[in-house]
DNA sequence: GCAAGATGTATGATATATCATAGAAATTGC
DNA sequence: GCAATTTCTATGATATATCATACATCTTGC
């Protein structure tokens, strides 16, 4: 039975949450995806990362990040300024429009989390996080 | 910090597992994706479901399932036989090639699960599943 | 300095995710 | 029995996921 498979529950939980999050962002009239929001947030916090570094932080791959960044720049949420010391890269900066959308999304994300985690105690979350981290570690390819 | 966000851990765990699973399937020389495998497995168990019903079982949407079924038929893993009592539908059946690939993938999936869940006690899994189900339920849209 | 290797980015190909909608076929209400 | 509604499937548009690879640029070794 599918229901007895742990990964089914995992998949279901994350997909449910993502749908909820996206629905609430859409409902607020904000034109951004959850994934774009995440990348934008990472750039806000660190504007000197390579695509690969961003990819590791958001757990996507470099190709996905490259396309998302191009889209965010195209939409005017990010600015790409050529880096003088490395001709391959551009320094990314969140634009004014980007800041506005991040500010608008922030409370929605917090509300979503509250809804998603309703009824879970602080201790539950700690246990959950530990188990999930263990699974991720178990699955990680041996680096070397 | 991203690391303190539960959904980050969730996303990371499921993505790690999916990558491991796909890598091992690929390594075995089997030409099927994890998602295709899941759909094929569902059809094997119930050959009279609508796309919508399959979609609910695998927690995808109908459009995704439609495309995956078309691809599975095209690849010869599924057979589509028109249903006499409903001109809109076709009865899906797993082909001989489909059975072969399911049989070949089965042990790999089991091995993957063992690797992913190494070090987790039976009790951990129960707790984990309950918490994940609760989250999914919290996020589910009110049906009516 | 320069050749070899490493790093950073972009993109093609294919698969999946989602919404919206079109079109066909079945069901319902009356 | 037929019109209105519902159900089922397919598909367009756009976004993301992944691998592979092309290409430019940087770094290292010597």
Describe the protein in words.
Chain A is mainly α and 144 residues long. Chain A has a single domain, classed as Winged helix-like DNA-binding domain superfamily/Winged helix DNA-binding domain (Arc Repressor Mutant, subunit A, Orthogonal Bundle), CATH 1.10.10.10. Chain A is built from 6 helices and 2 strands. The first copy, chain A, has a two-stranded antiparallel ribbon. In chain A, a hairpin with a 7-residue loop joins strand 1 and strand 2. Chain A is globular. Chain A starts with 5 loop residues before the first helix and ends in a 5-residue tail after the last helix. Chains A and B meet through helix 1, helix 5 and helix 6 of A and helix 1, helix 5 and helix 6 of B. The first copy, chain A, binds a DNA duplex (30 and 30 nucleotides) through helix 1 and helix 4.
Number of domains of chain A: 1
Find the biggest chain interface: A-B, 42 and 43 residues
Number of helices of chain A: 6
**Terminal CA distance of chain A:** 37 Å
Largest sheet properties of chain A: 2 strands, antiparallel
Query: Strand order, biggest sheet of chain A?
Result: 1-2
* CATH level-3 fold name of chain A: Arc Repressor Mutant, subunit A
The poorly predicted ranges of chain A are: none
Shape of chain A: globular
How much beta of chain A, percentage-wise? Answer: 5-15%
Q: Tell me the CATH superfamily of chain A.
A: Winged helix-like DNA-binding domain superfamily/Winged helix DNA-binding domain
What's the helix-strand series of chain A?
HHHHEEHH
Name the quaternary structure: homodimer
Mean pLDDT of chain A: 90
Radius of gyration of chain A: 18 Å
CATH architecture of chain A: Orthogonal Bundle
- How many E-type strands of chain A? 2
Q: According to CATH, what is the class of chain A?
A: Mainly Alpha
């Amino acid at each position: 039975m599918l229901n007895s498979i742990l990964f089914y529950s995992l998949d279901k939980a994350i997909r449910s949450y993502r749908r909820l999050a996206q629905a609430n962002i859409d409902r607020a009239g904000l034109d951004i995806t959850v994934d774009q929001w995440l990348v934008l947030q990472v750039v806000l916090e660190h504007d000197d990362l390579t695509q690969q570094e961003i990819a590791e932080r958001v757990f996507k791959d470099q190709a996905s990040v490259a396309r998302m960044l191009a889209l965010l720049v195209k939409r005017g949420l990010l600015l790409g300024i050529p880096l003088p010391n490395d001709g391959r890269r551009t320094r990314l900066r969140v634009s004014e429009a980007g800041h506005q959308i991040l500010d608008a999304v922030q409370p929605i994300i917090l509300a979503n989390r509250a809804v998603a985690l309703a009824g879970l105690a602080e201790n539950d979350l700690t246990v959950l996080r530990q188990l999930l981290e263990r699974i991720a570690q178990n699955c990680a390819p041996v680096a070397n």
